[in-house]
Amino acid sequence: GAVVSQHPSWVICKSGTSVKIECRSLDFQATTMFWYRQFPKQSLMLMATSNEGSKATYEQGVEKDKFLINHASLTLSTLTVTSAHPEDSSFYICSASKTSGRSGELFFGEGSRLTVL
Amino acid sequence: GQSLEQPSEVTAVEGAIVQINCTYQTSGFYGLSWYQQHDGGAPTFLSYNALDGLEETGRFSSFLSRSDSYGYLLLQELQMKDSASYFCAVMEGGYQKVTFGTGTKLQVIP
User: Fold this and answer.
1) Chain A contact present for B91, CB below 8 A
2) Does the CB of B102 have a partner CB in chain A at under 8 Å?
3) Is B57 near chain A, with CB under 8 Å?
4) How far is CA A18 from the centre of its chain?
5) Residues B10, B17 contacting (CB under 8 angstroms)
């Protein structure tokens, strides 16, 4: 199977600071990556669809100026939470699809648990 | 908009069979996937249906009825390690958007 690596796994930051989360496809090229956030005991909520070389498509209600997404290469997408506040504390997880893989399969990173103090 | 509904919790006995249903409302439907997620972990892919019918992968099977906007995941010969959350996910427009259902927490008891 394909491997998607996400870093960092855990991050604690002070309110008002910015945090960058990286998502890498290690053994395949991903033209499209998805960013989700998940609160405890809840589903994965799609935040945005990241396309290599173009602007991300954000879901309704997601602030694009607060959650900056950059997909500069076919193997790397980044999510920057700007001016983080305690309500931004969540589990953020990225995923990517592999065009030559099984249909309908997304490969997920390990997730990044953000705690804003 | 999109919505995917699943039962919130299901309890079943080890060795039994359990079915987890998913009903969806969406535009541009392309296919329905199923994922398993253990607490604190990342989702892992189980099965996918683009056409009506049953897909079988070992102990797991998935069914889709596009006319009814309905699908289900069937888990056979339940094992304790199957205790996890299960999500259906709708794919729209190929890989343009993947939206997850509300999730079903399965508890397998001895």
Assistant:
1) yes
2) yes
3) no
4) 15
5) no
For B16-27, the pLDDT digits (tens) are: 999 999 999 988
- 8 Å CB contact of A110 and B42: yes
B-interface mutation test, from A59, A77, A108, A110, most B Cβ less than 10 A away: A108
d(CA A30, CA A50): 10
Nearest to A108 among B42, B99, B101 (CB): B42
Distance CA B32, CA A74 (A): 25
Find tokens 């998913």 and name the residue.
B22
What is the DSSP annotation of chain B?
--EEE--SEEEEETT--EEEEEEEE-SSEEEEEEEEE-TTS--EEEEEESSSEEEEETTEEEEEETTTTEEEEEE-S--GGG-EEEEEEEEETTTTEEEE---EEEEEE-
Q: Judge whether B7 is closer than 8 Å to chain A, CB to CB.
A: no
Question: Phi first, then psi: what are they for B83, rounded to 5°?
Answer: -65, 115
- Closest by Cβ to B45, choosing from A49, A57, A106: A106
Question: Which is nearest to A21 in space by CA: A89, A113, A116, A117?
Answer: A113
* Average pLDDT per block of 10 residues along chain A, 117 residues long: 89 96 92 92 93 88 94 91 96 86 82 96
- Whether the upstream peptide bond of residue A8 has omega within 30° of 0, thus cis, is yes
Tokens of B31: 């296919």
